[in-house]
Amino acid sequence: QRTLAPVVEKYTKIIDDDTASYHMPVTGGAVFPPPSLYFDRTVEKLVAMYRTDVASGLAPEQVEERRAFYGRNELPRPARRPWWKIVWVQLTDLMVLMLGAAIIATAIDGEWKSSIVLGVVVVLNTVVGAWQEIKASRTLSALENLGTTTAQVIRGGTLEAIDAAELVPGDLVELNEGDAVPADLRLVSCAQLEIVESVLTGESVGVIKDPRAIKERTRQLPLGDCRGNAFMSTMVSHGRGRGIVTRVGAKSEIGKISAAISRSASTVRKTPIQRKLTRLGLWLVLLALALCATIVVSGVAWGRKFVPIFITGISLAVSVIPEGLVA
User: Fold this and answer.
1) For the whole model, what pTM was predicted?
2) Residue 273 to residues 94, 97, 100, 208, 279: CA-CA distances in angstroms?
3) Which one of 74, 172, 216, 269 has the largest count of C-beta atoms within 10 Å of its C-beta?
4) Is 188:54 a contact under the CB 8 Å cutoff?
5) Residue 56, Cα to own-chain centre: how many angstroms?
């Protein structure tokens, strides 16, 4: 599948020509259309491209070769970090490290009350930050539940309920009121079909679907305007319809969202305010070090003993750090 992925990417954009024949990538003697919305394709063109039938669907022998090419219809699994790694990230934050240095410095200076207060701040920050991230990871895990478990598919002229993960592009899917759409579809027939696409567009009102092709100059039509398409994990609120599977798994719209969020979680990208706080913390560290060095050098130059003046410098450097900034 990895060796075939570049072929799919290469043929993702197809030249729109009403008269020309389709030249798709050939693999093992089979011709496979690339994953796409195909909102600008008529039903007749789509049937010819996928070598299927609007009445009987795919033949059983066609399914396996397509699954080997396109993969299973499964959403990417969100990356999960163990709790100890989440806590470690909180403890290694620059501001927390500064407070840790302040705890040591105040303890050396004998200011135990200040050390205890700073320690409580660090513990509270770690607990709150870790708890927030654990809750966020639970929300991310909810993406796994967006996938549909079963699908009504027509294969070899027979309507059957199968595991949605077994769907392949070219399958003919039957949609009825109350069903969750199991994959990205190009609709071939509709009977007062309305689908709620709030999971993708935020609109809670059902979209009235129409199987007719949409001719536009752009290939980046907004999802809400793709009235000839049905998208994975959206809900049928009214009517019934039938559609040909065009995209599955990570290639579907909800799959792209899931993959993007999973990548974001695995790379632990910082938010803008986190980046600003990191820069502020760095400047505070530099200011504290400069202040400490100035006090020590000046004190030694005036004949003071090194140890007392060093402790004084550390105390003044610690006073620069705002303990409430972390919280």
Assistant:
1) 0.62
2) 14, 18, 22, 41, 10
3) 172
4) yes
5) 36
Single out the residue of 211, 272, 291, 251 nearest to residue 40, CA to CA: 211
How far is the first Cα of the chain from the last one, in angstroms, to the nearest whole number? 48
Beta strands in the chain (DSSP E): 26-27, 30-31, 150-155, 158-163, 172-175, 184-196, 207-208, 229-230, 235-247
Tell me the pLDDT tens digit for each residue of 77-89.
Answer: 766 778 888 888 8
Query: Residue 138: which residues within 8 A CB-CB, separation 6 or more?
Result: none
Residue type, 252: S
CB neighbour list of residue 144: distance below 8 Å, 6 or more residues apart: 75, 77, 78
Question: Which secondary-structure segment (H or E) carries 63?
Answer: helix 60-70
Judged by DSSP in three states, 161 sits in strand
Question: CA neighbours within 13 Å on the CB side: how many for 76?
Answer: 21
